[in-house]
TrEMBL record:
UniProt protein name: Zinc metalloprotease
Membrane-topology descriptor: Multi-pass membrane protein
Membrane-traversing stretches: 6-23, 101-121
UniProt source species: Denitratisoma oestradiolicum
UniProt KW keywords: Hydrolase, Membrane, Metal-binding, Metalloprotease, Protease, Transmembrane, Transmembrane helix, Zinc
Any matching Pfam family: PDZ_6
Record SMART domains: PDZ (SM00228)
The UniProt record lists the keyword Transcription regulation: no
Similarity remark: Belongs to the peptidase M50B family.
GO molecular function terms listed in the Swiss-Prot or TrEMBL record: metal ion binding; metalloendopeptidase activity
Amino acid sequence: MSAYTLAWYLGAFALALGSLIVVHELGHFLVARWCGVKVLRFSVGFGRTLWMRKWGVDRTEWAISAFPLGGYVKMLDEREGDVAPEEVHRAFNRQSVGKRMLIVAAGPLSNLLLAVLLYWVMFVQGVQEVRPLLEQPVAGSPAAQAGIHAGELVRSVDGNPVLTWNQLRLKLINRALDASVVALELQAADGALLERQLDLSRIAATEVDENLMSRIGLALQRPRWPALVGAVAAGSPAQQAGLLPEDKILEIAGTPIAFWDEVTAVIRARPGQRLPLKFLRAGEARQVEITPEVIAEQGGSIGRIGVSVRAPEGQSPLLVEVRYGPLEAAGNALTQTWDTTRLTLVMMGRMVTGDISWRNLSGPVAIADYAGQSARMGLTSYLRFLALISISLGVLNLLPVPVLDGGHLMYYLLEFFRGRPVSDEALELGQRIGLGLLGLLMAVALYNDLNRLISG
């Protein structure tokens, strides 16, 4: 990976992480202020303070700290120091249980609201996505047994309309986790509407991963377009090699190229290998060398050079622009956020019970990789990535684990029903257990990241 690419990935990761942390802590801060609690410090990061300024009526300390994976809002609290008599009413511990729960829940809920906002922006401005136009299913697969054929377009899943391949994939993942039979409405090439029953009961929970669609037997139909370069991603191997839009690829690593799907097949099969590439520009044949990036996939890796195809005019049957009015976009943004939140919760639960492998857990290295890839693919891809990570952060923080927001909510619920706070001894024990669980979680995630790098 070049220095430029590394800087791009780190920059995209820092922007994503920083913005999500700020939104999360801002939720705590704003609701605390609304409830009358005095905020002493707003910090992005933990540990040694790198930068700090005091601002506002309460002279709140706004800080950036050395360890960036998180942040905190420190509020006035009698349990953490002396409080002046005239400010006792503004201490966090003096607030009602309801107010304390509201302040704690505001952080994760802010992340979920951010996801809704990001999806709303995408839906209002319009998103170019791939339609669920299907290739011929693999023989013996659930899709083949359901009677699905090449050229059929998926219109709905269990009566819920789908417009894009991503929408279809999300709905089928949710249905596969329930091991259910799915009703698909399809449109044949001649316009006829068809009903098909797709049996997902044979899909084990451990097989619900990024390769699910291929296990079901579903794949996108790929038209045989000429091997013309459409767009070149910034900092990609293609840009570094000097490829430009409108270049026609003739040969890669000695393999003659006529159509774009051949470009994809050759590049995917040779991650990290230095390849000679011949192309035609303005009638002149040229040759460069290009090294596809190594992109980790479940069970292996693929190559990618950062180019897209130039679709012939009027021949883009796979693409559809998803655009809604402001009100309709809000409804679809809420639905998308809810479906993704539900899927995240179910996947986490299945990991705890052992139904899904912990290898699906990603750490900071993988997230940085996804951040860089999505940023290079364009603003829409990056916003979608931010929405997904924001949902994951919100859901994670709502888990009933001590030291997380969900753990504090659990304590306050106990206080509400018992009529008195949880004892200091129980709080201290919970903190130790919570820190241990978080440490274990981070260790597993980091191990998965390193394992993907080594195997890739």
